[in-house]
Design goal:
Blueprint lengths: L1 H34 L3 H13 L3 H13 L7 H13 L3 H13 L7 H13 L3 H13 L7 H12 L4 H12 L20
């Protein structure tokens, strides 16, 4: 009996490895098709994986529905797949879903929802989401306008090399915004040079 159970477990494990290998192979082939701008082929390779719950494939299927110019563009489907991946913790999908809410693409514009999705991704290290939160604070979208908080989020993204955030940090600093102000005190040591 023990021998049969062992063979059965080995068989299941082998089947699992084979399906994982197939998933990785199909996923990589999908990337190659995507890089070749063959969105229909990429969609055909990723969609079965997405339907099985593979978060990266769900995110990528959503991207195809969002950007495709060969008849596959479908904003509601993009939203559906981004949401599926975002709910599994995919940072790219969370950021993209936030962007769709902010722009009102495929759903009603909702800055509160945009903020929530950006915050989830930003809290887990997404530089793009951190930048987006910085913009929301800088512009007062869904939150009170707050240069200090905008600067904090821009800096987090800039520390990861996010170029737009680096520029925003520089601009806020030039304008003297987003920083604690130190009261001016006249230095009397220089008064004799008048």
């Amino acid at each position: 009996m023990k021998e049969k159970t062992g063979k059965w477990l080995i068989g299941i494990f082998a089947l699992f490895l084979a399906s994982a290998s197939y998933a990785n192979s199909a996923f990589e082939q999908g990337w190659q098709a995507y890089r070749d701008n063959d969105y229909s082929r990429a969609l055909a390779l990723w969609l079965p994986l997405a339907e099985q719950g593979h978060a990266m494939s769900q995110n990528n299927v959503a991207l195809i529905y969002l950007i495709s110019e060969d008849g596959n563009q479908d904003f509601p489907e993009a939203v559906r797949w981004f949401r599926s991946a975002a709910e599994q913790g995919n940072l790219s999908a969370q950021t993209s879903l936030g962007s769709l809410y902010a722009q009102g693409l495929g759903l009603e514009q909702d800055y509160n929802q945009a903020f929530d999705w950006f915050y989830r991704a930003a809290s887990n290290g997404s530089a793009q989401a951190q930048y987006n939160l910085g913009r929301m604070y800088a512009e007062g979208l869904a939150v009170s306008q707050d240069d200090m908080k905008a600067m904090r989020w821009y800096r987090r993204a800039a520390e990861q090399g996010h170029r737009k955030s680096e520029l925003e940090v520089t601009e806020l600093m030039k304008q003297g915004r987003g920083m604690k102000r130190v009261p001016y005190a006249k230095d009397t040591r220089w008064s004799k040079f008048g």
